[in-house]
Fold each of these.
Amino acid sequence: MRSLEDFPDAHLRIFERPRVPDASEIQSVYLIGICGTGMGALAGLFHDAGYEVRGSDSATWPPMSERLDAMGIAVNEGYSASNLQPEADLVIVGNACTPTHVEAAFVRESELVQQSLPEAVAHFFIGDRRSLVVTGTHGKTTTTSLLAHVFRTAGKDPGFLVGGVMNNGDVSYAVGTGDHFIVEGDEYDTAYFDKQPKFMHYRPTSAIVTSVEFDHADIYSSMEDYREAFSAFASSLPESGLLVLCADDPEVRRLAGAAISRTSTYGLDGPDLDVTAVRINTGSDGQRFDLMVDGSVLGRLWLPLSGRHNLLNALAVASIALDEGLRIEEIREGIGSFLGIQRRQQIRGEEAGVIVLDDFAHHPTAVKATVQATSERWPDRRIVAVFEPRSNSSRRKVFEEGYATSFGQAGAVFLSRPPFRHNDRKEDFMDVDVVIQRIRESGAVADSAEGADNLLPLLESELQAGDVALIMSNGGFGNLHEKLLAELSERS
């Protein structure tokens, strides 16, 4: 793994941060970048635990701004050193902050007590509880949410933190009073002062690894670098813990060699799986399957989500839940009542016979799985896929080939042309024209435009009654979903 000295900003300052006092000594907390999905959820955790919470962000926007306001959490719009007055007992520095960020620099130079998000989660909320960590390139948000929901319906009252909003209860976190804390383990770096992956802070008792495929090209220099991060995580589990591995993924299987803990495999392909599904029936309302563990069928389950990837997620959850002592009846009830999470194949509306879906997919493999799941859910409808390569990693040339082959189940594809940012390099930047040409060669309609407003007329012209408009982005995509629904409403 790379040290902080290997990064461009490292020369600005490496420092020893003040010791974080015990939780009982902290009364007030300030979060820099409070409107981010993870930071906003952490603010909610601190608020629910009884701390005085406030923070700042470059801009405030719904729904997070509304959630924070409902909790009475004060948010400064815009960054300034004066926002830190009066001084809080603890400052949480978001990983979007650079060493020269005005508030982060003030905190450092003033030697205020500070932590990163994962450090704070581990210090204040995991503590000595049983830490169940879900990680992997794809599927970790849905899997973490499903795991938390299963434990909640079983009456275990776990604490949890996920990177999305669950439709069950409209929540993304809970302090909980039970023995477990369930957390989504991200492989992205922790903070400008800590280049470890976030998941290295969560002290897992047991864990799930859903997939390992090169991602975050802005952080990891190669597949070997990326692979090393997951190997370090796998080796961090204690001997008594359980590492649950998706055996359908060769990169995940090899992690068994790094573990000192017990290991368990799940999947749908190949022999000798510890947990698998048989007699699978798919329909518009999800999937029904027999859960087979160690060669014996434990029961028939219903998962109200479409797609092979979601079935794999359910098998991973069942693996951990059984090991933690949940009964098959409790697992069946939890999986069968899971309503999914927002921005994962979420129906935003239907107008003029066109269903408009919202999804968070932003990696070629996730895009492919989402398009496939959508086509399984609506086999008689044409899929019109709309994609915004927005993240630092998704805009990279290394993913051109992946995107060119990700839309095979779509009848038409529209890409938003990403703007060239200050941290982009021309030689690494994705050529949208190359991707569009490859898609056209496969026989699908394909086009591109700059941003939501320029894509809107192209979509309105292409979409027909009976289509599904699948809109994918890890951002707001210029509110394209609502704009499109409004245009279609005028047609009807």
Note: The chain is about 30% helix and 25% strand.
Amino acid sequence: MTRHVLRLSDLDAFEVAAVLDLAEASGVDAVLAGKGAALVFEHPSARTRNAAEMAVVQLGGHPVTIRGEEIGFDRRESVEDVARTLACFHGLIAARVARHRTLERMVAALDGAGSGVPVVNLLSDYEHPTQALADLLTIRQCFGGLAGRRLAYVGDANNVCRSLLDACALTGVSVRVASPEGHELGEEDLSQARELGGTVERVARPEEAAEGADVLYTDVWVSMGEEAEADERRRSFRGFTIDEALVSRAGPDAVVLHCLPAHRGEEITDAVLEGPRSRVWQQAENRMHAMRGLFALLLKDGAGTAAPEATR
């Protein structure tokens, strides 16, 4: 059965650990040798595109990056036809999409055709699993392990937050999330993390979340597609900035993470982003290593080999 990763919870705890181990392995099998990898981007990308392309190269493959206007989902041709076409040429499809449903349709089309090509979510409006794997890798490197650590997420309970919540649940990291009214975690998100074994609290103020935390984490207040809400969001998120005063409430060895891009002076101050607690650039590099580990896991033992007779 072909494995796909559209949500972080598509992996179990053992597989998450395996991805992190593969990310740090000194040598990884060239599971993409002689194969292409289709990297589709409906949204602009800096870190994700660079990380994905280099991960494919390190696994022996050839990355082919395709912009949204070149694909034209449901304009030039259907999502299903695009997916089956790409599977004719590539051993892996990874996509950054505007709507999570696009990924689900790609998977359904490929599985229905018996293609054997895995699909990986490089960001959707619902989740960002490859980011969460890089976050776990960074925390593990900082502290030597994950279980028992405490993470404070301050800001919008968005796609990054959802994936991070499940990632922490699977690895024994407890989480407190502080978001302004109207931008909080939903009950479904909390239930999902708790069903995975996570300890999750939803709190009202950043100070409460940060108290004694090992990791302080934030993301932009205005994500892609939300530009029309920018002014309202900036008003709502006042007081939810990670600054030096908030960092002082965290544990003595606490580190600060941000998935980037950063809007300095909004969700994080320049002093914190460039300060001694910041591990943001280590975290950015780990995007590549974590993605390499994930692709290697999905493609090991011949998985992900295209079946041309099923896709043509």
Note: Confidence is low (pLDDT under 50) at residues 303-312.
Amino acid sequence: MHDSGLLHLDSGLSASYQALGPTTGETLLFLHGFLGSKDCWRSLLPCLSRQYRCIALDLLGFGDSSKPAIRYDVATEVEFLRQFINQLALGPCWLVGHSFGSWVAAAYALCYPAAGLVLTGPAGIRDDSFCGKYDRYRPLLWPSPIIDAALWAASPIAKLTGRSTTWQKLRWFRQQIKRNRAARSFILDRLRPEDAIDTVEKDIHQLKIPTLIIAGAKDTTIPLWHSQTYAQEIPHARLIIIPEADHSLPQNYGPQVAKIIQQFLDDQSAYRLG
């Protein structure tokens, strides 16, 4: 079964999703990372949809889902996810998240039933070292067109100094923040350590569901100790570290990540049958 489109929720919001695989059996619901979309799972879905119903969702404010003018937080995303699951009558399903999507998945599982969690490069652990680390990039959040002009004017200098790739990433980030209300809201509301009020490290010890954490040893976006915290706090969680991988686990290591997920799910099925 291949299906995609917009699901109009009872709240008036629309949820964009893609579904592959059988319509019966266990469901894997995939949640993308920050500034991402359901397309980040493109290389995993064909690998796993032969056995499982796989649904990739655009979170609220991202991709083709609704983008209301609201203050965005994790609780808002959890409620959006709850509405989507209820309206499709999915029941408790496996939540597969990447980065920010893992944070939403863990927060959801703390509030509502879920069959299990697969968290790749998970965010959601309070880390005060982030605060101040990116202060020099704060002007990228300013709405002034002067910032765009400065980035454009500095491009030749960046090319001469061998920093063209970095400069292109900054310009891409600037454009994403300008057009993505949800991303801008999340960043502006979390510039100080005391703003980290919805991280999950204090509560994840309460989770009693099968949990797999996959991390890249060369991840420079989310430090490895965040994944290790999830693994230490969630009872019986399994941590797999891919030595050569960076943060882009679903995008650049899709088949390898899919194989790890498949093995974990097979182990869970064998455990239940045993």
Note: The beta strands are 2-8, 14-20, 27-31, 53-57, 94-98, 116-120, 211-216, 238-242.
Amino acid sequence: MSGVKDRVALVTGAGSPEGIGFATARLLYSAGAKIAITSTTDRINERRDEIERTALNIFSRAADLTDSTAVNTLIEQIENDLGPIEIVINNAGMVQIGRDEPSTLFHEVSDEQWHYGIDINLTSAFMVTRAVLPGMMKRNYGRIINISSVTGPSVGIAGSSVYSAAKAGMLGMTRSLAIESGPNNVTVNCIGPGWIETASSGDSEITAGNFTPIGRSGTPEEVGHVAVFLASEEASYVTGQLLIVDGGNTIQEYKVAF
């Protein structure tokens, strides 16, 4: 299997040491990829050092992914350092940047909450993908993986309408783009994590994970392994899909102890 070896991969939202983005970046690096990681703060440089302090095939930089100028500058810096970007993991979002967004009923959502939630979850993926896509299409190779959620595309949670709308929007964007870019050998897919235990997980979320068919919350690495597969050369005939990683939670009607 050639996998991702020597491919240049950008992982966004990789600033948390216990998050999906950082776990995915570590797995890609272990599989032989050259990796670029980014988040909104300079803590991303700490993550780089944790992977390998002196490696020449790791790039880290803080960036505002909702700003097109910042995104274009980031992409240019990465490609100057590592080479053309061939893999993108769009993982940035509200959870990854550490901002606590309270549960808010739809009719109480403010304009600022709406715009912020859509920007950080959906617009960031749009900005990054738009910046790298022309190069991928020109080179006739690319892998784009959007970290969506089961919340929005498959299920809903009261008080999470903005998050749900953004994550469902990621799936819609994925499917349309998969059709557009398929002739250029660029695949585009979504991953829908369920209850994944990270540093931002609350007690109620961890408890909910105990009632999945697997009987526990998932780990960031379990999502990361799916991302690495979709990023690989071997996943060449998988595109426009939502791969759910939730321990079977969305297939069951009863989600309480029997």
Note: The chain has a mean pLDDT of 94.
